[in-house]
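[job 0412] stage=complex_fold ligand=phosphoenolpyruvate status=START
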Amino acid sequence: MLTTLKRIVQEVNQIPGLEPALARLATLVKETMKVDSCAIYLADYTQQVMVLKATDGLEKSAVNKVKIGFNEGLIGLVGQREEPLNIENAPSHPRFKHFEEVNEDKFFAFIGTPIIHQRKVLGVMSMQQKSARRFSEDEEAFLVTLATQIGLEIANAEMLGSSDLVNEDTNFSQKNINGVPGSSGLALGRGVVLNMKHELNQLVVKKSRAHKEEIDLYRKAVEITRSQVGLLSDNLGDSLPEDVKAIFQLYHQLLDANSLGREVEQKIREGWNAASSLKLVVESYAAKFAAMEDSYMQERAVDIVDLSNRILHNIMDDTSSPIARSSAIPKDAILVAKEVTAPMLAEFPAENLKAIVSIQGSNNSHAAILARAMGVPAVMGLAKVPLGILNNAELFVDGYSGLVVVEPENQAKQEFLQLIAEEEALVKRISSEADAPSATLDGCSMTLLVNAGLSAGLEMEGNKMGAGVGLFRTEIPFMLRERFPSEHEQYVLYRELLEAYPDKEMTMRTLDVGGDKPLSYFPINEENPFLGWRGIRLTLDHPEIFLVQVRAMLRASIGLSNLHILLPMISSISEVDDAKRLIGQAFHEVREEASKTGGILSKPAIGVMLEVPAVIFQLPQIAERVDFFSVGTNDLTQYLLAVDRNNTRVSSLYSSYHPSVLLALHQIVKSSNACSIPVTVCGELAGEPAGALILMAMGYRKLSMNAHSLRKINWVIRNVEEAELRGLLDQVLTSKGPEDVKLIVNNYLESKGLGGLVRAGA
Ligand code: PEP
Ligand code: MG
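[job 0412] stage=complex_fold status=DONE, emitting structure tokens
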């Protein structure tokens, strides 16, 4: 059954346009299952109806005409109940409703199953049979499995507006794509996909009427590919093994004008552009090869796609945008990538970067945290959106809601420009008070620190008011290299920072790689990276890495007394003891070395990140061992709620405003105060207006955040009353869920005239 399912889904996926794809799906299901009819209905939520979109067996002319109300007939019932319905004699069912247009009088047996994606019923798929019988369990399982597989495809096609995908370039109309908010802010600019690799499976098919030009383009690309392939085989010499020779033979056969070329050119004459024609022909070939029993033939599917990607590259190289050709990055660039990484951002010209769009990742992925640190709007997790439709397109990015608008129409564009202007005015107002003290209207003083490290120093620029660095993430210098940085390289970096702010506390966290921060030269392959070998777990297993880093930090602090060392991912007391022992060892070594040149080494303050829930219950014992705590709400939220912070699919479940997370945070500040140990919050919650206010109400007095948020939070603090917020705390902590919590705080912000910030992620 699995092979049949795969074959059907593969074949249907290759058909451009949703309606022809569904029509073929109906036929394939009817033939494979040997039933008398198959029909597919899609939900239209504005009209509250299921529209017949495809059928083989019912009256074809009824397609797009028959609309069944959500409360009507068996199709409506399947959608309402969100479960399969298998009936021997449909006309005798109380919910049966006769629709003359579909001509189904002759059918008795009925089975229908909902097509659901992300909890939403997108449609219903049904099979019917003339005889009155119950469909077997196998038939039911087949239909249900098929419906789950096509749900995602339908959702994507609907999101992208499938009919647009087959329009000509000039008609490409506005598309609204929803992702996950990554970094607040608005931007209008041009999508730039760096080093875009042209691949058939990423290509969005388009039509073209310029048949002759497209055929010329295709032929030219084939010629270039032929000489490239020739060169490749020449370079490999004569002594090629037989199997490699066979691949080159296949390449040459395919490049022959009478082979692939004839079919591609036929498709061009049917109205597709050169690249789309190649895709349509090749994918159908590849699917046939992949479905063959013979494993040798199956593997040839890979070769066909590989060669065709080379041809595609040569087609696109000729037609690609001026940007791609000149490799010039426009002034208003919106960086788009499958997964935006820190090194990618470090290399991108900051003055051109208006926003970031990452196809993968979520709100608390480190790419999003980095975007926030740089003050650049970002949207994450656009699921299956092909990069091709974003490259060189005009994009509007709304980092508050997670919306990306592709090729906005004129009126929408004017509205976006207006919103951007309003936002700029708010930023100006906030910045005017940037240097004023961080105290509430009723005199509660807050210490605001900065989170740094992610963008290699960028965060500190123009940041005058921070009381120091509450979190320096040391990972990035490790990620930007192709090997572990030496002790000296690290020393230079840390010294620069410690020396620049001798009177301010500088909290440096020891290496926290693993999870979504991999090192290319130290690969870790794990099923569950966030529950695996990361942070202190890794560095304690590799004391040589830990000691080199701690020695670099200590050497950098000679003659200064501002170094705080912070330990990430602590989950047990023995880890604290082990880390302290190693720090003690490094301290004695460095102190001895320093004394030879008259240098004085002060004892660093040592702290623990509170980000694994287990430590909440052992705070008194840990407090006896260290000098301070720093709460990492990003990981604490992920581990308390069991929601991977990097996974787009569960991103709606991830919220630091979940009352359980807030209760844990309240418990932490109460326990820390009882132990008289200083505590800071350095997770992203501290840099959000609502989050900062809730934390203040709980009793936190030190918050560390990205430099970009610092001005905003300072402004918020200066315009509220701590006593009023304390009065709201009970209500917040007994709320049902994150939305209720935000509502309470947002209403308060509105009442204080800070409504502009509510939109800004409060
Ligand atoms: C946290 O987990 O809240 C934190 C500050 O650390 P990171 O985001 O680097 O894991
Ligand atoms: Mg963390």
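Residues 175-196+323-418 form a domain with the Glucose Oxidase; domain 1 fold (CATH 3.50.30.10).
[job 0412] exit 0
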